[in-house]
């Protein structure tokens, strides 16, 4: 029986810094999709309560310690960084998404501007405050975008497209760096 | 000529550039136009049709004459307006549409031939003989007429596109724009102020104006300093707003690196999409030329442009200057020149009652009847209230009044309104929702009026945003009334009077158009090409309309309006499509086995967005077919491994999961036992096949659906629609898990042996069964399914282990005499078995066509069932799936004919969808759709492919060529 | 063009895929006459003015949306989720 080696989506891509802004693959954490069945909101919240979480409103998240529950689309949220409470299975469809997504962290003074190249979303702090999450395109890719700090974002894309997402953001940063050098 | 101490250029930063190979000096802050004028270069181009010598007419992006090519390595950018291009060290520019040189242009002969080349000449002259048009006349005309030329190289330069959002977008930074921006900014709104030019200020930095008793330039700098300090303001210079679109969306083109030459990663241009809650249009106005005989000579330019060159660049375009105008405002040109010590020969005022009090001669009721100077103006001849005269001048400034820059207000179908008092069109109210025009673009031409309207527009925007406006005093500035008497052309003279300089359209052409009954402005435009050049009629549309109105005896508003569409300025496709080149065109999806496949030298081919190995070459193999044949035999004889992770995987759960599958599949899934897999067929609601694939029942209320690679996204959308539209209340949820699992096919007589060594203990899995297995600590799923017709499995594992498992499986396969196989062999294997792909279910085939009508359950409803039963969807007149067998290659796309029939559309009997050479059967095989094909097995059919020059006979067979009974599959 | 998704908020048009007229929501009974199915599948009005059609927020939350809009003025009058529509799905 083989001892299989796990590889992350962006294995081999070292973190990159351009004009003080850093792009890096985030450490893997278990991700479970939770899609409550109709009329089961109360039961789902009850099952989530031991984690200190509740099902998030659209574009929002619920966080407690290292566990986060991220809104991920219609009737769907992603539980990140925690084991799924067994009681949930009766009230919601659950799938393991741990391997399905690559998570990129983008932080620094150019983070917002870099995202404003491939993402057609209003990311001004007032419109997209810390903790806000959105399903949105990253150019032609479906992505989940979360603001983790004033100048920091987390970008989730399908694992198979991670290299394209990396290339898009690297390009945006390189361009912004070149612009900054203009007097 | 450059004047000492004048202008806003940076005299501390001299730059060197070339034009047509000659080296010149300019300063940082110069445009190419101002620098050329400073060097007394007046002749800069040849006109489009007649190759007339042309100079610089304007000082802005509306320039119709001074278009040049900018050279950059092996790149050249044609039709760059010299009035927009800034100079920098090393800039190389070249004039265009001339041969061999600007001063001696052979095609200048066109100008002599002009009597034969009037508007519409090619419609009349080149009618006969007919074939000559395409072969002779058009190429000749195209060579003679024209603008710049392309490098014929790929444009490798960097471009950029970006989004921006704001509460208030202010377009233009003259007095109206700055006042609007300041008002909105002080109210705390997020403001974007976009200015086309390199420097903010509009006429405040191009005219000698005073604001609150200080020079206009100083007021601009003070205001900008405040705006720069505010965190809620973004100032965008060199940014032209090009279009107004729905719901507050604007397009804008920023010239990012064009003023300083190339640098790594520095974009030439950025195309912005700006979304604004409210917007203020403060785009100013464009001065109009006047029509008079030979009004297009180098040295004749707009009066406001002369002032711009004087005040902003410290340049005067000549030594003896005259002015002709139909309004008071233009006289500032003469006064400013005289104040700067430049000789003004005369002011010519077209109005009979104009004032004659100036420090130079003034002629009223003046009309220019001719000009002279082959490569540049030397004199003008005119008549006036007291007679006629000729003046030796090298420069003539002209002003026919102003056209408000209302272009953006036309972009959403708004039609401008004619205002007789200013003889100009103004924006219709609310032509663009949430946009307010202010200042000159709204027909208000005084500086004080611009401040007032700018502030009012901002107040309106703030009110709509629910913000209160700050109490902000209006600056003091000139508030002179706009005194003008409409005047368009010199009446009753011979000679050509130019309207559209860029397209060589004269007043005669417009009159000819009217005479030939092209009286509608839209017809006139197309007959004469008036307004269809790069400047899109910015300089000439209103003048042409006035001439047409006069020729047809109607008023201007009765004759028509002029309208404008995006973009406001020529916009490079490269900027709008930034990032879409090469790998940026679409996301690239990579398999976990990608590197392992490349390590083995596999050429990768695109399958949708995925990259999949085509075949795995072995030493000594020289063609893909050799490798493909080997891989096919390998799988039929021993074992093959292929990455099939690209198939869509949808996890479906809930008490109504089975019921939902029964609705979307034609066949029944509620009867499928747990642990088993079933092949399913999915229809569109119109009865045609949408997709096929297998679904496994993992639990009572838990299924895993597989879709084809091609239709994965489409099926998800379809499921979402059926669910949300028809059964949103059902207890069912589905989630894509395509990316969560890497999945590998292991197929062939030795597949079981291979997996036994991997798993230690091989589960007893029936054909179409599924079981959970573990690989060490890693959980995996094993399916016994086959797309090759061999005893086969697919093993799925969490994606992070995909690469490791693929390498492991391939190594084990090689020990057993097998190995990896690619898309080519996969295709051969499935054709041999008659398995369909989207080559067959291409959107026009029904379940009946592919021989699966029995899969449409009679016991239940499903999506597409009713439509599939409509007349014409089944029966002998349908093209039905068959196999074709031949001794030489066939081509996908070939058409089928009954031998003996004429090869013709009407005798067409069907078409080929997939072809291969089968090493298993040593025959060329095809899947095809043949009219009433299932009744024709055994017939001979003619296969014709005109593209590939194939015309052969083939035998019609059952589509399953190999192991028809499925013995190997179930072994 | 921008659509305000009831879940995601105001978004650019490129996030959405157009499908067709609202009619697609009114699926005939399985045994309805062929004319009813033809009307459902193919026959459409093409109004200059207010129209209701279906859009899919495929780059967003995956909601199907019923959009009421004016084809002349381009005004978007209402956007509602198909699944949550009044008198909607079973």
UniProtKB/TrEMBL annotation, chain A:
Pfam families: GCV_T
GCVT N-terminal domain mapped to chain residues: 90-172
Residues annotated as signal peptide: none
InterPro entries attached to this UniProt entry: GCVT_N, TrmE/GcvT-like
Top-level taxon in the UniProt lineage: Bacteria
Protein name: Sarcosine oxidase subunit gamma
From TrEMBL, chain B:
Keyword Oxidoreductase: yes
Pfam families with a match to the protein in the record: FAD_oxidored (PF12831), Fer2_4 (PF13510), GCV_T (PF01571), GCV_T_C (PF08669), SO_alpha_A3 (PF17806)
Domain SoxA A3: 495-579
Keyword GTP-binding recorded: no
GCVT N-terminal domain span: 598-860
InterPro entries tied to this protein: 2Fe-2S-bd_N (IPR042204), FAD/NAD-bd_sf (IPR036188), GcvT/YgfZ/DmdA (IPR028896), GcvT/YgfZ_C (IPR029043), GcvT_C (IPR013977), GCVT_N (IPR006222), Sarcosine_oxidase_asu (IPR006277), SoxA_A3 (IPR041117)
GO term, biological process aspect, one: tetrahydrofolate metabolic process
Keywords associated with the record: Oxidoreductase
Name of the protein this chain belongs to: Sarcosine oxidase subunit alpha family protein
Source species: Paragemmobacter kunshanensis
UniProtKB/TrEMBL annotation, chain C:
Molecular functions (GO terms): sarcosine oxidase activity
GO biological process terms held by the UniProt record: tetrahydrofolate metabolic process
Cited InterPro entries: SoxD (IPR006279), SoxD_sf (IPR038561)
Pfam families documented for this protein: SoxD
Name of the protein this chain belongs to: Sarcosine oxidase subunit delta
Organism in which the protein naturally occurs: Paragemmobacter kunshanensis
